[in-house]
Amino acid sequence: MDQRKNDSIVPSITQLEDFLTEHNSNVVWLLVATILSCGWIIYLTYYNSRNVGLILTLVLNRLYKHGYIHIGSFSFSVLSGKVMVREIYYITEDMSIRIQDGFIIFRWWKMYNPKQKQHDPKAETRLYITVNDFEFHVYNRSDLYGRLQELFGLEPTIIPPKKDDDKTRENGRTRTQSKIERVKVKTESQDPTSSWRSLIPVIKVNVSTGRLAFGNHYQPQTLCINFDDAFLTYTTKPPSSHLDQFMHIVKGKLENVRVMLVPSPRYVGLQNDEPPRLMGEGFVVLQSNDVDLYYYMDEPGMSSLKVVQEWLCFFPEGLLPTHWKSSES
């Protein structure tokens, strides 16, 4: 009796096939395929990028132990060469970088000419970066304070000492020399046409609503630099000295720039020297509608490193600064 009731409630495969045959199975399967397709499209549109971002966050934090990395969502398109990200956080003990959203476009369809000049600022722009709501905050210098503690013979309370620090100090010059030799071999064997600068000679960056902050809650004021839009172009040029490899060049334009001293939110000390006036968020030190930016820096070559190495040989071991003794610096 119970078996008959179960058979009547849950149909068997034979009964299901007979039912679909009697009621035109093509319409039923079309309805099922439509529902599944709609569900898959909704998942790809709203949830797939977030799940990929969660997986990348777990993997990166598992591999990288010196800070916290968060990726809210991540998606890419091979056809358009676009990588889109949202809610990017990079937090360490000294600084933090936050990006609300942005995307990177790599124009892979541009013709690549390996014989083109690497230092040509008018070359094709294959890499384009757009960032919205960029925030860069420096609130500590633990590495510098750790060197000062080591220089004055204090106990390392900021950065715990490593087990092989003594061996590193003893073999500092030997390891530095071997490292320079490895760099020399790598530099001499490198083909100029195989460098990434020949593939991407120019990089354009567009930042919308950026902020740079320097300070913490131990200081009464925090230096903030705000701007609405920034249009930057990065390229390389021949070096100013024959001892260097090349020169980094960053040109750009910033709009509505304000440099302010803002009261630190959680400052608990005494306010001895107050700013003369507060306008809006804080005391405005500098304000301009348009700011032209030009930054250049030479990349040291093997010859420059060799000159520095020979110059350091004239100093006794005890007179060298602490950060020059380390082989990793």
Automatic annotation (TrEMBL):
Protein name: Bridge-like lipid transfer protein family member 1
InterPro entries tied to this protein: BLTP1, BLTP1_N
Transmembrane segments: 27-47
Domain of life per record: Eukaryota
Domain annotation Bridge-like lipid transfer protein family member 1 N-terminal: ranges: 1-303
Species name: Mus musculus
Keyword list, A-Z: Membrane, Transmembrane, Transmembrane helix
UniProt KW Transmembrane keyword: yes
Entry keyword annotation includes Hydrolase: no
Gene behind the chain: Bltp1
